[in-house]
Write a structure and sequence with these properties.
single chain; alpha/beta; 5 strands; globular
Length: 104
């Protein structure tokens, strides 16, 4: 299961030193519901190597504003506490796994 990011834990987890992937999503978003099971699956596959999680833009919002997330799903990729990549829109499991591999 994917880690649940919120405004309280977001920055702490990003600064942990581990590669981090955050899926910005909402329950009402159709493409988000397509990407969600892929994110959950890859969270398990990469457990211990990459922190993979979700940030519900309706539950929070500060981080979406800070990282200029204007469309969802948006997936942000962090390495050593810095934003290194961004993907907007739907994505296949294979393409997302390739981006995760690139973080390692």
């Amino acid at each position: 299961m994917a880690f649940i990011f919120n405004d309280d834990n977001f920055k702490q987890e990003i600064q942990s030193g581990k590669p981090v992937v955050v899926d910005f999503w909402a329950t009402w978003c159709g493409p988000c519901r397509v990407v969600s099971p892929i994110v959950d699956e890859l969270a398990e596959t990469y457990e211990g190597r990459v922190l993979v999680g979700k940030y519900d833009v309706d539950e929070g919002g500060d981080m979406a504003v800070e990282y200029s997330v204007r469309n969802i799903p948006t997936i942000l990729f962090f390495k050593d506490g810095k934003l290194v990549d961004r993907h907007v829109g739907s994505i296949t499991r294979e393409a997302l796994a390739a981006k995760l591999d690139a973080l390692l």
